[in-house]
């Protein structure tokens, strides 16, 4: 990573570390492990998918409730790293704990999965906010995209190891059950996440902050209330949050529920794991490509491209029948999922005042988390009502259409400082 500072490299490396959780726990091994446990307990495929969606919704609702106030407190000098460490610790701890829960206790699995989701998502609130501390505005697209790119690439290593252990156990080459092999994957994830987070703890520090003051919690509530009143003065920021609320909902839902969706379509576990692995490999370079293209065509135009790709994904999913169809769908997702997330993070970082980055990223995440409640619920309810998972994914298309429409009205960032201007009717 020539041309990158030590702080930028260390920040990027956390994506390398935490993305193991994203692929193994959120997307691949745990959903398959949970689906098998629920099926053995007599739960239907559509119902178990719905319950997973409801669990994700509950976890994100909890975080959405606490993120803004934690972000506001986190803006005080020395607090950002402390809050990051807390959520990081419970995320890694809950991930490791999944390995010690009996496989027939599917409800308990969902409970610890909820804790893991809160830990992972909570740490990302403060990790995202560190972007303003490690680089300059003109490099944010590149650094944010590089983070997602390295995350996808790096996560393939523990993913390959985990898949190898599971496949070898299934074929009797390793003298362990598939259940034990899956639990080993959970341990690998926790260790990978913890080990490669060390550079961030050593080299990334809070450069922009608000000086400490008496009664920080009380004053944080006051500042939060003031921000809520004033946020509409930041026209670009306000409109972007509304657009982001809708389109990131669909992105997150497709990522977290893709494996359950594939299982309902009858795709084998091995095929799903292989598809997800290739998706990670393809997504890494595409995320970096989005960052470079954003420097040439602007981040906003590349966000348009990503959203349009996802609209095509939702429409195609409705007609999906075969494993080949799922491959095509996965590659479409791989081409844009990292890019749209990275450029959204960078776009927002350019709009926020740096000394209040945690507070504003608290709003960024609350919009994203509340959206993540709506998406899984929409898929879950639609799947149960229609008895068809395809219809559930197709229902997400409306969120992307609303998101891209509102995004069209968002002004381009012009400088490092947010330009206050009244919202016009």
From TrEMBL:
Listed transmembrane segments: 12-34, 54-71, 83-101, 107-127, 148-168, 180-201, 236-261, 267-290, 302-320, 326-348, 360-379, 391-410
Pfam families in alphabetical order: ATG22 (PF11700)
Organism field: Cytobacillus spartinae
Protein's cellular compartments: Cell membrane
InterPro entries: Atg22-like (IPR024671), ATG22/LtaA_families (IPR050495), MFS_dom (IPR020846), MFS_trans_sf (IPR036259)
The organism's taxonomic lineage, starting at the top: Bacteria, Bacillati, Bacillota, Bacilli, Bacillales
Record keywords: Membrane, Transmembrane, Transmembrane helix, Transport
Primary site of residence: membrane
Annotated protein name in UniProt: MFS transporter
């Amino acid at each position: 990573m020539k041309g990158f500072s030590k702080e930028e490299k260390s920040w990027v490396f956390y994506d390398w570390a935490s993305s193991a959780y994203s692929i193994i726990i959120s997307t691949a091994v745990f959903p398959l492990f949970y689906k098998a446990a629920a099926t053995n307990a007599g739960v239907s495929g559509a119902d178990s998918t719905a319950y997973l969606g409801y669990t994700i919704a509950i976890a994100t609702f909890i975080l959405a409730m606490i993120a803004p106030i934690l972000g506001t407190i986190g803006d005080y000098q020395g607090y950002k790293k402390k809050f990051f460490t807390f959520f990081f610790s419970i995320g890694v701890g809950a991930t490791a704990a999944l390995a010690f829960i009996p496989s027939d206790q599917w409800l308990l699995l969902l409970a610890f999965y909820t804790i893991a989701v809160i830990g992972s998502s909570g740490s990302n609130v403060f990790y995202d906010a560190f972007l303003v501390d490690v680089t300059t505005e003109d490099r944010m697209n590149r650094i944010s995209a590089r983070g997602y790119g390295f995350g996808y690439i790096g996560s393939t290593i523990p993913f390959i190891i985990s898949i190898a252990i599971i496949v070898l156990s299934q074929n009797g080459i390793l003298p362990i059950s598939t259940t034990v092999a899956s639990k080993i994957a959970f341990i690998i994830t926790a260790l990978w996440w913890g080990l490669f987070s060390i550079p961030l703890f050593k080299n990334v520090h809070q450069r922009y902050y608000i000086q400490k003051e008496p009664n920080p919690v009380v004053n944080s509530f006051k500042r939060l209330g003031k921000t809520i009143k004033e946020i509409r003065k930041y026209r670009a920021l306000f409109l972007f949050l509304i657009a982001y609320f809708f389109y990131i909902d669909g992105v997150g839902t497709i990522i977290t529920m893709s494996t359950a969706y594939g299982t309902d379509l009858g795709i084998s576990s091995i095929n799903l794991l292989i598809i997800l692995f290739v998706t990670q490999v393809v997504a890494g370079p595409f995320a970096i490509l989005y960052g470079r293209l954003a420097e040439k065509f602007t981040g906003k135009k590349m966000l348009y491209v990503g959203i349009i790709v996802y609209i095509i994904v939702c429409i195609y999913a409705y007609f999906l029948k075969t494993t080949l169809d799922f491959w095509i769908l996965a590659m479409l997702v791989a081409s844009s999922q990292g890019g749209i997330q990275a450029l959204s993070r960078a776009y927002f970082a350019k709009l926020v005042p740096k000394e209040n980055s945690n507070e504003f990223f608290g709003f960024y995440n609350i919009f994203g988390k509340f959206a993540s409640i709506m998406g899984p619920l929409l898929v879950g309810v639609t799947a149960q009502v229609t008895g068809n998972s395809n219809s559930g994914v197709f229902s997400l298309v409306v969120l992307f259409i609303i998101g891209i429409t509102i995004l069209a009205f968002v002004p381009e960032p012009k400088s490092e400082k947010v330009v206050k201007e009244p919202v016009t009717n």
